[in-house]
Structures are given as structure tokens and as C-alpha cells.
Amino acid sequence: MASLYQATLERSPYVVVAGDLNDEPSSEAIRALLDTGLRDVMSHPSYRGAPGTHGTGSSESQKLDYVMLPPPLWDQVRHVEVERRGVWAPSTIKSFDSVTSKGNRASDQAAVYVDLDL
């Protein structure tokens, strides 16, 4: 994936890598992406939440979802958050009222989002 990102930079310096990458931050694939200069928005000073996105999200080993920004966009970050209310983890997360079990949760993974001042 890192080589795909680097090839895409030839067309634009504003390439964002985002989604369920299904890999922990310590994995070789994630490290390779970060070694290109991309930055994980959950490392931005505006983010103050739990480190993970899967299950309870309470540990970095539960991080599978990413929004990675190229250097030209990093200074444009205004706010980073993880929307967890669609996840069912009743002892750690206050879900939406309509989420009452694993059967009707939105996902087992929370959604990472970033506000940019463009």
C-alpha cells in the first residue's frame, strides 16, 4: 500500500489514506505507510480519546482504522475524533439508545474522522 500511496503522490500532494486497514499500528504495513511521511490523525494533539478503534478501543492493539494525512494537510487539522456510539461495548462505551446488543450495533469498529480547515 505504501508504494501505491507514493505513486499517487505524482498526481497530487493531497493524498489521504483512510479506512479499515485491518492492521495494528505496530505492523510492518502500517509502519511502511507512516515511513512515507503520512501521519495518523489520532496522533494529532487535538485528539484526546482512547487509542483503539475496534471493540472497546481501550488499547493501541485494538486500532485497525485510520485516517492518514500527507504533510501538506497536517497543519490544516482542527479536530480529530472517533465516533464510538454505534459500537456495542456497554461497560466502556455509551452507545446510541438504539444500539442494545451486538446484533444491532452499527459495527464492531468505531469511525475515525478529522475536521480540516481548507
Tell me what the structure shows.
- The chain has helices spanning 2-8, 28-34, 71-74, and strands at 17-20, 39-40, 65-69, 77-83, 111-116.
- With 118 residues, it is of the alpha+beta class.
- Helix content is 15%, strand content 20%.
- It is globular, with a radius of gyration of 15 Å.
- It starts with a helix and ends with a strand.
- The strands form 2 sheets. A 3-stranded antiparallel beta sheet has the order 1-3-2. Strands 4-5 form a two-stranded antiparallel ribbon.
- The protein has one domain (2-116): Endonuclease/exonuclease/phosphatase (Deoxyribonuclease I, Chain A, 4-Layer Sandwich).
Write down the overall geometry.
Answer: globular
Number of domains: 1
The SSE string, one letter per element, is HEHEEHEE
CATH architecture: 4-Layer Sandwich
Give the terminus-to-terminus CA distance.
26 Å
Radius of gyration based on Cα positions: 15 Å
Outline the secondary-structure elements.
Blueprint: H1 2-8, E1 17-20, H2 28-34, E2 39-40, E3 65-69, H3 71-74, E4 77-83, E5 111-116
Antiparallel strand pairs: 1-3, 2-3, 4-5
Task: Summarize this structure as a short list of keywords or feature phrases.
about 120 residues, 3-stranded antiparallel sheet, about 15% helix, about 20% strand
Brief sketch in words of this structure:
With 118 residues, this protein is of the alpha+beta class.
